[in-house]
Amino acid sequence: MATALVSTADHESALSREAALTQWLCARARVAIGYSGGVDSAYLAAVAIEALGAANVLGLVGRSASYPDAQWQAARDAAGAMGLVLREIDTFELDDPRYAANPANRCYFCKTELWSKVVPVAHEAGFATVVDGTNADDLRGHRPGAAAAREWGVASPLAELGFSKAEIRRHSARRALPTADQPASPCLSSRLPTGTAVTPLRLARVDAAERAVRALGVRGDLRVRYHGDTARIELSPAELAGWRASGARAPERAVLRDAVVRAGFTRVELDLRGFRSGKANEPPAPGDLDVIDD
To answer: Each residue of 246-283: pLDDT tens digit?
Structure first.
């Protein structure tokens, strides 16, 4: 009974928060959204369109080599499904040597480039308010890109009103948004360890390897981490169990290896720690890696 009461209370709190979001948006009348097509920005766009009408909402997408093509196609599809007017803007963060050096605050330089392009376009189109999909959970992590957003006057209503990622997923499912269960997909540069220079070739290899792994039926969270000639694959716990040497998909491991090798790597490792967001720089301990041989 106590669990049911807590669940009901949580549900009512979530609905109240969504009502507050609607009020926040209505007070601004028109909003431009830094839109990636991910869970957060798609939910924010859906609520904004419902509250303000499609003519008063503009989605702005930054396009560059650091974002997977598949992600952009999914972003376009989601925008089309909800009636979001979308404008794509080329960004050139890889031309910034500070970004390309891949320091710990790389995201600051990326977001500075993004907002320096997006915010002027929004203002020229008549949108005084620019928002992003940062949620309350994001505030607890290392988010150097958030400083760039503040410098450019970008608001984060989901974070401001206390929306968690889990709550956003529940709201998205209730609205039947296609992004409700979508895995997180940060930029491809996040697959390179800090200090490893970001180049278009390296990003292309990671992108090709991840597409090859997806083509084999892998679902859920996935990262192919770049370690020179070595690709280190991280999978969700459910997928990892099947792809281990003793798992149900053990006979397909050679196919997996060949697919990743075709993307430009010579050695393929399965990280037995599984998918770990934000842990790209954490070295493995003995026994953490399963080398996938021919």
So the answer is: 888 989 999 999 999 999 999 999 999 999 876 667 78
Angle at 225 between CA 109 and CA 88, to 5 degrees: 45
Q: Return the axis-axis angle of helices 39-52 and 2-28, rounded to nearest 10°.
A: 60
Q: Do 168 and 158 contact (CB within 8 A), yes or no?
A: yes
Amino acid letter, residue 139 = L
Q: Using CA atoms, how far apart are residues 211 and 192, in angstroms rounded to an integer?
A: 17
Single-letter amino acid code for the residue at 40: D
Q: Is 88 within 8 Å of 75 (Cβ atoms)? A: no
Low-confidence ranges of the chain (pLDDT < 70): 1-12, 278-280, 294
Q: What is the pTM of this model?
A: 0.89
Distance of CA 9 to the CA centre of its chain: 30
Q: How far apart are CA 98 and CA 269, in angstroms?
A: 30
Residue type, 78: A
pLDDT at 75: 92
Which residues are CB-contacts of 251 (< 8 A; sequence separation ≥ 6)?
none
CA-to-CA distance for 154 and 132, rounded, in angstroms? 7
- Spell out the alpha helix ranges (H) of 2-144: 2-28, 39-52, 69-82, 97-100, 106-124
Cα(154)–Cα(139) distance, rounded to whole angstroms?
A: 15
